[in-house]
Amino acid sequence: MAMEIERKFRVVSDAWRAQVNRSLAMRQGYLAGEGGKASVRVRLEGEDAKLNIKAAVVGAARAEYEYDIPAAQAREMLDNLCIGRLEKTRHYIEIDGLTWEVDEFINDNAGLVVAEIELDSIDQPFERPAWLGRELTEDRRYYNHHLALHPWRTWPDEDRH
């Protein structure tokens, strides 16, 4: 089984911007609502497209399957089949041989910035940059599937901090 081990954090300052090596615009949508055993996502990453299936569980380790698909088909799915969509720019930062992915959301999720790091094991140590805030790995509200269906800007103010 393909397994993703990932930790997610809130970003609390713009200090990360000076460390970015590359950035990529992303547009993604979900083909099924909440409550199932998996989330099914289609994503445009620049000119590349992927279909992704992830176990609908909360936590650092989840089953994940990802497949390249034609970009034209991804655009059709995004425009005609998706029930929830979001857009963001993903910024890549290398620190101590590990890649941080900083997602800067736009549109209905504008103002939200989160950072993720993929690890080889649950207990793998990593340097925690000063621009990281609280950990969000166990908070389902910050998962992209939830954000696509319940945008961050619609949350009560007290929940957005």
UniProtKB/TrEMBL annotation:
Enumerate the Gene3D superfamilies for this protein.
Hypothetical Protein Pfu-838710-001 (2.40.320.10)
Location of the CYTH domain: 2-149
A Pfam family it matches? CYTH
**Active site annotated at which positions?**
30 (proton acceptor)
In terms of InterPro entries, this protein maps to: CYTH-like_dom_sf, CYTH_domain, NeuTTM/CthTTM-like
Report the domain of life of the source organism.
Answer: Bacteria
Supply the source organism for this entry: Solimonas fluminis
Name this polypeptide is given: CYTH domain protein
